[in-house]
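In the previous chapter we treated chains in isolation. Here, by contrast, the input contains two separate entities that must be folded as one system, with a combined length of 657 residues.
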Amino acid sequence: MIQAQPTIKPKKLDAATIITIAIIGVVYLLAFVLEQVMPATSMLFTVLKKGATYALVAVSMNLLNGFTGLFSLGQAGFMLIGSYAFAILTIPVAQRLSVYQYYDGGLVQFSLPWLVAIVLAGLFAALFAFLIGLPVLRLKSDYLAIATLGFAEIIRAIFQWDKIGTLTNGSNLLRLFPTFADFNVRDESGQVLVYWSTFVPFVIAGVCIAFILMLINSSYGRAFKAIRDDETAAEAMGINLAKHKMIAFCTSSFFAGVGGAMLAMYANSVQAKSFTTAMTYEILLIVVIGGIGSVTGSVMSAFLFVASSEWWLRFLDQEQMIGAWKVPLLRNGFRLVVFSLIIMAVVLFFRQGIMGSRELPDLFRKRHKLAGKGARKA
Amino acid sequence: MSENVLHLENVTMQFGGVVAANDVCLDVNEGEIVALIGPNGAGKTTVFNVITGVYPPTNGRVTLRGKVIAEDQPRGKMRKLYAGGHAYEYPHTVNQTPDRITKLGMARTFQNIRLFKSMTVFENVLVAKHMNMKAGFFRTALHLNGAEERRMREDTLKLLEILDLTDVKDEIATALPYGKQRRLEIARALSTNPSMLLLDEPAAGMNPQETEELCAFIRQIKERFGLTVLLIEHDMNLVMDISDRIYVLNFGALIAEGTPAEIQQNPDVITAYLGVAET
């Protein structure tokens, strides 16, 4: 037997990787430049901010559902915890009396910088995930989904309970905490000098998604995929199932919590009743449309989803005239009909989602490798 | 007598009213190749699953190099239902999970091949290195354990080289031909650095020539990695050729034990396999 000596080639940046980095760089540059030159009220920035938030949450859900094979539907619950933790910790002390008007200014009488609060928001979500995970992660597939869904519903109810209103403000809004708009640099007269309100969420989401990507490509990521592919075999290979499922669950929830904090900054206010099951389904939809097991897919479809639902399909909700001809069917709510049809089309014709299990660099690589990756579903 | 590696003492595994393994006592010594045979449904895989920690035994004790890895007595509903012998002689409850047992140096393959289907051959083998990683979660996730990761990859490449799988290392595991998939399963098991290897029907679905190659292959890796081997197999040519000793299981109970020559002459074994002539 003559065989080449095994060697590990030092990691080289191939063309595909360079193109990918270039694309990401251009997107960030565009986000920054467009914000300076376009009117701040443009719908584009709403979409970009919310899109960045949803992209992070979708990727965190994909880490759990797509890469570890744990079908969890608790995402809205963990976002809620993140939102509340962020809001409660950052409302300026001077404003607390007006926010907690029914609770004498509330229990918490300090205020943290936004960056500290956003990390704590994630940590709180991860802590809850740990406690919930202890009993729940023993369950498999559908049962896990139902249990986590139930958890999200319970959390939503508890946060509206007026007995803990000094902390959560009951069913009232939390507001007046730092928002994305506060990142804009203003002069004394209030005139904006540099706009950062879109770029900063991009950076937060980017850093978090980069961490998730690195995790997926590390030894832990391989262990997660092993668990997804075959639990019994993974365990026989020395992978501690309970420990690794817990790590995946807590990591995913951490970033859902951070995403929740971002959603609070985007929306300028937080209210428990907005974190419905429908929100989890929206995120699940993003993950499925993007491709289960593809981070790129989740990010792309998050922006597409938000753009469609907030912007591009809005015209369907109003009566439109072409010349003297009134377009039929268009009225309030019709957007959702079209939206559902698009989703059905995607599910029917792109079973694997937009990206399947491919990532952005794969698009620039040779075809035969993709054929190999496509074969996994066979 | 060489050192004892695996020791089963009165292991009974009962599912409801079905006694899948009944009072099984079994010993595997250092450097041996031992086969566990028996007709279909005799309980061979059940015994394997008890040894590897997939099922906790209903009653009895399993030790690996003197360390108890599973021990239990009938409890709960089983107190009434229990139909095996030696009940309540094992008061402790030890139930090591499969991953712990793998860390103690016992690796296994599966009867129905269980490869990680989305991964390449290389990754399949690399995954098994994960359990011995020293770096913590954050260091690993941030790729700060470069030296360790490189060593894991190098070890994996070396192993693939030895097992003659280098040329297919970037293929998706399930795209391999059947024989190579079997070989990959063994490679993956070896990647955990075991001292004892459990093979569940390694020759299933192979033609005579492939079986012969497998036979040589098992001997080769046994020598090379200093293994002790316990295998389940239906292919009698392979079993008789390769085994130092054979245990025969029928309806959950051991009916014979001995060298291949002894087993071939054993009237109980012949009856179990061929049945009794009606007179």
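Chain B has a mean pLDDT of 90. DSSP finds eleven helices and eleven strands in chain B. Compare these points with the single-chain example from earlier in the chapter.
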